Structure formats: structure tokens, C-alpha cells
């Protein structure tokens, strides 16, 4: 382990895989121990035998995102009940960029129940564009354009998941970028 290793010196966002249905209890423990984290929750209407109830459920099942200095805080995080393992890519912990996390927060907060989680392979590649009007103004997003709808795609290759949100084409405009 080197002194100038970015995993040793700076906070980064990491995907933490949790035990099944342990996301919310783990989030409470992170709050208790003052560990910076993000659990994308959406409100869903569920039917009980005698009534309907609105509950918050995780948008990405069995995943919670933590913002830590990896080599310093990983043991603390993994010792909490409900934490299973960090997601690794090519032998190193998968780092999620701050911009990706901001896009995820915006997507879940603004479109919550309208979003859908899919496997990366199930989605065809879209165009990378810069949003000029509407939600996510000024950000680069991947889109797939159909007749009257635009599908915004936020991919997380490290966990092989993508979150999509469909919106009316009138509510958004963009300019194409050169890649």
C-alpha cells in the first residue's frame, strides 16, 4: 500500500453490496456512526390484505453507496451487520465518480417511482448528449430517443446495473457532443 495511493488519501464513493433486505437498517447504522452514505429510496404503494400503504423501498436492491477513505474505513463498514462486501472491478474497489452520484441522486429524487432498474446488457447503447433544457441542464447524459419519448440512462458498469427514466420529449432538449 503506497502513501500516494488515491484509495488511501481521499474520500471516494464505493458500491457496497448488502445482505438481502438489509439496506435500510444498514443506512440507520451508517447514520449512527456518522459514515457518509447514500441509499436511493423510492415511495411505492403496496397493498396489504385490508389496506394500501405507502412505503419507501430501495431503488437498487442490495446496494448502498458509501463515501469513505477506503483503506482507513473499510473494516468499520464491513463489520456492521448487514454489510456483505464491496464491489470490485479488475481487482480494485470500484470507484464511482461524484458526478455519477449527483446524477443518481437527481434521478431518484425527481423521478423516483418512474425510474426502472435494468441490467446493462438489456439496454441498447444510446447517444451521449449535453442537456440544454429541462432536468439535468448542463449535464452529459446518455439518451435513447423514440417517437414522443426520451429515455435517460444512467449506467453503473461496476455493478452491472442501469437506471432509466422515460420522459416526454417536450420537457427536454439537448445538443449532441463529439466523443
TrEMBL record:
It comes from the Bacteria. Residues 11-104 form the NusG-like N-terminal domain. Keywords: Transcription, Transcription antitermination, Transcription regulation. InterPro entries: NGN-like_dom, NGN_dom_sf, NusG-like. Pfam families: NusG (PF02357). The keyword Electron transport does not apply. GO terms for biological process: DNA-templated transcription elongation; transcription antitermination. This is UpxY family transcription antiterminator.
Amino acid at each position: 500500500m503506497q502513501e500516494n495511493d488515491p484509495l488511501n488519501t481521499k474520500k471516494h464513493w464505493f458500491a457496497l453490496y448488502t445482505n438481502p433486505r438489509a439496506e435500510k437498517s444498514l443506512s440507520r447504522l451508517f447514520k449512527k456512526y456518522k459514515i457518509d452514505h447514500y441509499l436511493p429510496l423510492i415511495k411505492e404503494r403496496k397493498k396489504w390484505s385490508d389496506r394500501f400503504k405507502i412505503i419507501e423501498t430501495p431503488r437498487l436492491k442490495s446496494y448502498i453507496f458509501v463515501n469513505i477513505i477506503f483503506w482507513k474505513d473499510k473494516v468499520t463498514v464491513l463489520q456492521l451487520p448487514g454489510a456483505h462486501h464491496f464491489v470490485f472491478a479488475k481487482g480494485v474497489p470500484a470507484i464511482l465518480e461524484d458526478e455519477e452520484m449527483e446524477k443518481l441522486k437527481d434521478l431518484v429524487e425527481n423521478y423516483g417511482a418512474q425510474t426502472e432498474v435494468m441490467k446493462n446488457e438489456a439496454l441498447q447503447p444510446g447517444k451521449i448528449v449535453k442537456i440544454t433544457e429541462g432536468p439535468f441542464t448542463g449535464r452529459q447524459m446518455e439518451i435513447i430517443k423514440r417517437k414522443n419519448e426520451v429515455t435517460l440512462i444512467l449506467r453503473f458498469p461496476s455493478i452491472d446495473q442501469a437506471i432509466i427514466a422515460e420522459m416526454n420529449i417536450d420537457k427536454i432538449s439537448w445538443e449532441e457532443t463529439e466523443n
